[in-house]
Structures are given as structure tokens and as C-alpha cells.
Amino acid sequence: MTGGLQHWAASHPGAIRLQNQDSYICRPRLGLFSVADGVGGHSEGEVASARVMSLLGEIPEEVPPPDRLAEVRTRLRAAHVELLEQGRGRNPQATLATTVIVLMLHEDHFAFLWAGDSRGYLLRDGALHQLTADHSVVQELVESGVISAAEAGNHPQGNVITRALGAGGPELRVDKAIGAVQPADRFLLCSDGLYKALDPDEMAGILAGNGDVAQRLVAAALARKARDNITAVVAAL
Description:
Phosphatase 2c, domain 1, globular, alpha+beta, 5-stranded antiparallel beta sheet
């Protein structure tokens, strides 16, 4: 999918951290966009996120559109197994893990695939819709009614995720959200450093603007002293 499709991307270590463990890829000719956030607190998170993007970058453009989503799933599973094996092969054993969010666009349909707490949003008619649900301890607490959504923002376990490539068992569980594309839709993929620094109204206002909106989103998060790495990828029709 290339006709009428624009995209922007930006990434920054954030206001506190010196190293950026986020990675991203934009392949508009395939309609493929992705962000990965190396799991903080584990060794070489940047290696894990970069490896996932590398495997997605190797998908041939000749893959027929009906087969592309399956090809993405295959690459994600391969990355998961590879990262597990690399971690187990180290002495002492290490965890090389990363979140991932993938957007696939083709004609009048979209699909998000994800594991972890990197998010996918849709801006439509001025309203910002979160289309992914975090795989995190805090999200589980919200869904079970233990805490409110307002309390989730400052919860002490806010950085604890429950799914990631390279962590857990050999089977990778990836969730999917699909839908129909409408004219003027804008899609945002981001790591948690962005949405933890900006509220949804701020994100929507910037996303609806002109110019390089990904760079403007990252700059706004930096102005709020974002404590984590920040990555934004935007695809606009």
C-alpha cells in the first residue's frame, strides 16, 4: 500500500536515560510499520529490539498481500525463539526481551499485532482511539477492578509487563486488532515513554497537525521530561 500514504518517525533516549533501547521500522511499500521497546532492567534490550526490526526488514516485498500478516507472525515467532536461545546460552543466563507493536495496512483494512505495552492508536475525526491493550500487571489490575485507570498512571508496578518477545515460554502469544480504514485516518505506534509523558488530548492535538508530527510528539514528551525512551511512528492516509 503506497498510494496516498505518508509516514513520519522519531526516536530519542528521553530526558533521563543515556541509552535508547527502542527500535522502529517503516516499510510503506509493504504497508508495514513497527516499534519495539527493549525491556528495561534486562541486559541488552537494544539488541533484542533491533533484532526484531531486522527480521521484519527482511520480509521480501514480493510477498503477496494476503500472506503478509502471516509472514509477520512467522518473523515475530522466529525472533522470540532466537532471543530465548541467545539468553539461555549466556553465562550467567540473561533475558534478551522486547515489546513489539506492528501495523499492517492494505487497501481499506488495517491490522495491529502486539506483545507488551507498546501501543497502537487511531486518530479518526479528531478523536484518538487506543486500539491495543497493554500486556502489563497494571492493565490486569485495572481490568480486575483492583485499581482505577487514573491510579494506573502512578502505580509502582507500572513498568512490569506480562508478555514480551524473548521472555516466558517457547510459545509467543500475540494479540491482534483489525478494522476498516477510512479517509484521513492517522495511525500512531509508540513506546511507553510517549504515552506516559503526554495525555491523550495532547497526543491527539499534535497528531492532527501538519508537518512531521512524529518529531513533534517526541519533542513534546521531552519537554515533559520523559523518563523513558520515546519513539513515535505515524502513518497517515
